[in-house]
Amino acid sequence: MRLGRPDDAREIGVLMRRVVRRWVLPEQPREAGMALLARLGARSIQARIAAGHRFHLGFLDGVLVGVAAIRDDSHLMHFFVSTRYQRRGIARRLWQRAMRDAVRRAGTRRFTLNATRVAVPVYLRLGFVATGTERPSPNGVISTPMVLELAASAVPHEQA
Fold it and tell me: Which residues pair with 54 in a beta bridge?
């Protein structure tokens, strides 16, 4: 695992768009889905990295298999594991790395995200709770707002 760099943007975008097409688009309004795909292009990702968003990348045998992107050290804006590599603990390890990084950098104790319907169970397993009902986000993507509040001593250690 490592932090993403601007030259990773194309590979990050390819992984995220593949997962979005498979799992997210079927439950979204067409216009919102197309706008989401457009925001996952290399130029957009490069701009976000330049703006300080942290893209944590997970690799297996040199292949990018997961991305966790955090804005403002507190909002998980992108979280994807390649379909082929799901159910292997990659998401949990990637989240723990991103969370620890935000805690270390900014002392973050409260994390937020907007979960698509298919992702809600994943986030529940990671300890997030819904803070509202499913609704369109400002970008039109149908999602559920969720939060994770850390206790003062509760920062999980990364598993090998």
Answer: 70
Say if CB 15 and CB 67 are below 8 A apart. yes
pLDDT digits (tens, 9 = 90+) for 22-50: 999 999 999 999 999 999 999 999 999 99
Strand partners, 63: 60
Instruction: Report pLDDT digits (tens) over 61-96.
Output: 999 999 999 999 999 999 999 999 998 899 999 999
Cβ pair 80, 15 in contact under 8 A:
yes
CATH number where 140 lies: 3.40.630.30
What backbone phi and psi angles, to 5 degrees, belong to 153?
Answer: -110, 15
Q: Structurally, how many domains does the chain consist of?
A: 1
